[in-house]
Write a structure and sequence with these properties.
Probable oxidoreductase that may play a role as regulator of mitochondrial function. It is found in: Mitochondrion matrix. It is a single chain. This protein is α+β, with helices and mostly antiparallel strands and 356 residues long. The protein folds into two domains: 122 residues, FAD/NAD(P)-binding domain; 143 residues, no CATH class. The chain is built from eleven helices and twelve strands. It has a five-stranded antiparallel sheet with strand order 8-9-10-7-11. It has a three-stranded antiparallel sheet with strand order 3-4-5, with no helix packed on it. A two-stranded antiparallel ribbon has the order 1-2. A hairpin with a 2-residue loop joins strand 1 and strand 2. Helix 1 runs antiparallel to helix 2 and helix 2 crosses helix 3. The chain is globular.
């Protein structure tokens, strides 16, 4: 249990709760949920420029990372097609993957196919079901993809000023503005309470909030004097109690709850908002293809990690379809902006390619 790990190393409850957020981030789990300790370790096991457990912002926004990867691939001769939806994986008579068919009917032939989509989309939507073992397809359907995350992007006309450390008169950013700011995390019991509300189908009345202001370090993200604020919040259920829809009213009601919470820590925050974008779990699924809105393509619980990711016997990036590989977050070692699954899958695919 996460609680046991934190109690062993720390005494301060606010510090424990702040660290606990990384144990439940993106997970429909409580700090008291068995296995939650691993999720914390998963988020701090990496390093940035030699600093262990460190995180960083991408200059130009997260899209700039995709552009950098695309540029590197193009430099090696890769051809990249965007806005070209894939209809299904193209199979030969021998059942081997031979490319993909686009929705406009275009066939793109290839000896190998690597899918960065979720296991659910890859195998249940893009792969002919008659080519998959029934038990494999059933296991993919049973993967836990519940998500508690609602992402809110906010544009503000001034830097938030927190009661704990008010802004100076010159308006210059302070050190905490350059970091990840955790709100509603004074105690792990608050996280558990927020989780419990969501399990009953209700958005948390005091949600866990991770607030970042990337424009402090990257001024090009916003006009002079203005900022963009990223609010990573939980817990919100994918399906609301009583079958209520996640419509505009429900989205705005939850966003108002989040803003009220931020306002309590940083008075004037609500008045500074000039734009907002609210992405609930159904929105994350619809727009980004995340099953259930899960940012990791599936829960990071112990029964869905290592040799069981995405399902037992298929944790090595290969699939029941020869020539078709899974290289996204649904594969080992799971989610996170680290590229480990893609790198590992590429090495496996290249090894197979040499034997074709």
């Amino acid at each position: 249990l996460l609680r046991q790990i934190l109690d062993q190393w720390f005494e301060s409850e606010p510090l424990k709760a702040t660290l606990a957020t990384d144990a439940v981030i993106g997970a429909m789990a409580s700090p008291h949920t068995p296995g939650s300790g691993y999720v914390l370790l998963h988020h701090v096991m990496g390093e940035l420029e030699g600093r262990r457990g460190a995180w960083g912002y991408v200059a130009g926004g997260m899209g700039a990372l995709s552009q950098a990867i695309a540029s590197a691939a193009a430099a090696q001769g890769a051809h990249i097609f965007t806005e070209k939806a894939v209809c299904h994986v193209l199979l030969g008579r021998d059942g081997r993957a031979q490319g993909v068919v686009l929705q406009d009917g275009t066939e793109v032939r290839s000896k190998l196919v690597l899918s960065n989509a979720s296991p659910q989309i890859t195998f249940l939507e893009l792969t002919p079901q008659e080519q998959l073992p029934k038990d494999f397809a059933q296991r993919i359907q049973q993967v836990d993809t519940r998500s508690p995350v609602t992402k809110i992007n906010v544009a503000v006309d001034r830097l938030p000023s927190f009661l704990a450390a008010p802004n100076p008169h010159n308006g210059q950013p302070l050190p905490h503005h350059q970091c990840s700011i955790h709100l509603n995390c004074e105690g792990t019991h608050l996280l558990h309470q927020a989780f419990t509300e969501a399990t009953h189908g209700y958005p948390s009345t005091r949600p866990m909030i991770e607030l970042c202001i990337p424009s402090v370090l990257d001024p090009e993200l916003a006009p002079r004097g203005c900022h963009v604020v990223s609010l990573f919040t939980q817990y919100t259920p994918s399906e609301l109690a009583g079958g209520q829809p996640w419509d505009e009213r429900a989205r705005n009601a939850y966003a108002d709850t989040v803003f009220d919470c931020v306002e309590a820590y940083a008075p004037g925050f609500k008045a500074s908002i000039i734009g907002r974008d609210i992405l609930t779990p159904p929105d994350l699924e619809r727009i980004f293809g995340l099953p259930g809105g899960n940012i990791f393509h599936g829960g990071m619980s112990l029964d869905q990690l290592y040799f069981a990711r995405p399902v037992p016997s298929y944790s090595g990036y290969r699939s029941p379809v020869p020539g078709l590989y899974l290289c996204g977050s649904g594969a080992h070692p799971g989610g996170g902006v680290m590229g480990a699954a893609g790198r590992n899958a590429a090495r496996v695919a290249l090894e197979d390619f040499r034997h074709l």
